[in-house]
Amino acid sequence: GAGVSQSPSNKVTEKGKDVELRCDPISGHTALYWYRQSLGQGLEFLIYFQGNSAPDKSGLPSDRFSAERTGGSVSTLTIQRTQQEDSAVYLCASSSGYEQYFGPGTRLTVT
Amino acid sequence: AQSVTQLDSHVSVSEGTPVLLRCNYSSSYSPSLFWYVQHPNKGLQLLLKYTSAATLVKGINGFEAEFKKSETSFHLTKPSAHMSDAAEYFCVVNNNQAGTALIFGKGTTLSVSS
């Protein structure tokens, strides 16, 4: 079946601009996660959605980062006023249990 | 608090020789442990997982890992490396509750030479 999809696959933006990254989870998965993979920092958790519960935002690095999940399915990660240190691969994962299934990621480059 | 330490940032082996990627974990709970692989420009793929069943876990592509609670280790092994095994490998832990964020190790790059 279809896996987790993310769009765009690559995004180049100028410093100070806002960006939106999209994640389509596997149908029926109630949990959705955003992670960031950057050089020197490894893979770090950003935010987690579970059903209709309030999201766990404990991993967001600053208030420029926000995410929403509409209708318990698609999620959008928004980064406002992008900075060069935001350059990374942003990964989305969905889950219905212990195992998380990852999307291919969005590579964000801030120039 | 939970954490994962991958003891080698880079491992190089020859094709046909054994692979050992080392991982130690720290967890206040009975953990679930995973190994993920990431090939260049591709997404993360689950190799295998331990969730408190058998301590020796077999995964895809001939990989296996053994959970050793006394040593807090979860090392990944394969008897004979293939060129296609060259990739980044991540040891991962969570607190054994479905629906919690994964804690990733820094990764080990596996190089395989012919």
SSE diagram, text form:
The complex is a heterodimer of chains A (111) and B (114).
Chain A (H helix, E strand, L loop, with lengths): L4 E3 L2 E4 L5 E6 L6 E8 L3 E9 L14 E5 L5 E5 L8 E8 L4 E3 L3 E5 L1
Parallel strand pairs in A: 2-10
Antiparallel strand pairs in A: 1-3, 3-7, 4-5, 4-8, 6-7, 8-9, 8-10
Chain B lengths: L2 E4 L3 E5 L4 E3 L1 E4 L5 E7 L5 E7 L5 E3 L5 E5 L4 E6 L8 E8 L8 E2 L3 E6 L1
Parallel strand pairs in B: 2-12
Antiparallel strand pairs in B: 1-4, 3-9, 5-6, 5-10, 7-8, 8-9, 10-11, 10-12
Short précis:
By secondary structure, chain A is mainly β. Chain A is 0% helix and 50% strand.
- Specify Rg of chain B, calculated over alpha carbons: 13 Å
- What's the order of the H and E elements of chain B? EEEEEEEEEEEE
- CATH superfamily membership of chain A: Immunoglobulins
Major β-sheet of chain B, in short?
Answer: 6 strands, mixed
- As a percent range, the share of strand residues of chain A is over 45%
Measured by residues with Cβ under 8 Å of the partner chain's Cβ, the largest interface is:
A-B, 24 and 22 residues
The total strand number of chain A stands at: 10
Name of the top-level CATH class of chain B? Mainly Beta
Number of helices of chain A: 0
User: Helices and strands of chain A: which structural class?
Assistant: mainly beta
